[in-house]
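Justification of computing resources. Each target in the renewal requires a structure prediction run like the one illustrated here; the chain below, 155 residues long, is used simply to show the kind of job we budget for.
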Amino acid sequence: MSQHITGNMETMTRSAILAFVLACSAVLAGPVTAAEEKKDAKGDVGQYVDLRTVGLPIVSKGELVNYVFVYIRINLTSASNVSKLREMEPFFRDALIRSAHRQSFALASDFGKIDAPRLSASLMRDAVAIAGPGQIRSVVVTSQVSRRRVITAPT
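Resulting structure tokens:
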């Protein structure tokens, strides 16, 4: 009988040690997992609205000579309601397209590029009108790609 009790004690001791190790690993892994989740969530949330790619016409002397595809980020103030303004992305994009059809943003020296500061200033005015005052911090052209490789303006 004593052998049965001793064997039972060893099994109980092993079970207790295993339970202790599992509990410790769960406790130690818990905060790490929570920290990783917080870090991932923080990386996804930003104070900006990225516009979907927009193809802007490049017009010279009344003729369409090229399209430049632009990637634009509208940076918001810290007081902005990000989710509300992200829902307004189609309105920002529409304002950009309408503005680009009223005036060409092409560089005078290169029909493969747009004048980014001029485009940013124009969209900034429209974005403030759409979102309201105190919501928009800046407008940045993050990238531009010409439909054609090299197009220079005639001299």
